[in-house]
Specification:
It is a single chain. The chain is α+β, with helices and mostly antiparallel strands. It folds into two domains: 75 residues, Arc Repressor Mutant, subunit A (Orthogonal Bundle), CATH 1.10.10.10; 168 residues, GAF domain (Beta-Lactamase), CATH 3.30.450.40. The protein is built from nine helices and eight strands. The strands form two sheets. The protein has a six-stranded antiparallel beta sheet. Strand 7 and strand 8 form a beta hairpin. Helix 1 crosses helix 3, helix 5 packs antiparallel against helix 9 and helix 6 packs across helix 8. May be an activator protein for the gylABX operon. Keywords: DNA-binding, Transcription, Transcription regulation. It holds the Pfam family IclR_C.
Amino acid sequence: MTLMERDDNHLSSVKNALRILKSFTMDEPEKKISDLSATLGLNKSTVSRTMSTLASEGFVFKDPETKKYRLGLSILSLSGIVNSHMDVYRESQPVLNRLVENIGETAHISVLDNLEVIYLNKVECNHPVRFLTHVGKRNPPYCTSSGKVLLAFSNDKIVESVISKGLKKFNKNTITEPENLLLHLKKIRHDGYAHSIEEFLEGVNSIAAPIYDYKGKVIAALSVVGPKQRIQANKIPSLSKRVIQAAMDVSERMGYYPRK
């Protein structure tokens, strides 16, 4: 085997390990070798060998009774390092706590990654309703308030890429026509916030506003989400002012100074 072939094999092994780690989710926290093999299209021997290496380094743990694997403590330590160095995570924490206490709804911080919304931070309210959100969860951007805010302030190429993937209908109010989405994003830029009224999940409404860095670039979104019985359509204008102010508070903590 040549040196180049060995390098290719090493890169392939690293890629397989990363794909395996990324396949674990909150919905599927435990998996067997056969599950991973079928999901990722890898040979069982390849998966087994990779899992043994990951287990030896503490990145996965094998339950001796169920024979299922779950993520190990090494992942937790790495996530702690990432979070501690993410300014937006750190600076948003007190603002989210205060916002949730004041309005009584769950709040998130999210960013756009690989044409999806990913949640970086979440503060639960005292009377939470089960939503499909958690830190690390990915959702489509065109039917969530945070995603629409991030798209509205992204470049045209990103918006075009999202549209090219297709605007799947998730619920009765999902925007599925590209022209309507573009007009909607234009309105969001004008208004300075976005709302989603049962666009993604039935019975769930949300409001989001942009977070700016010290250069004036939108780097994240702050959103609140709750059941339609509490976040009613007629309350969105007043709630949006509080969400916009909270997002601005985070922005200023990030070094942003709005032009008067």
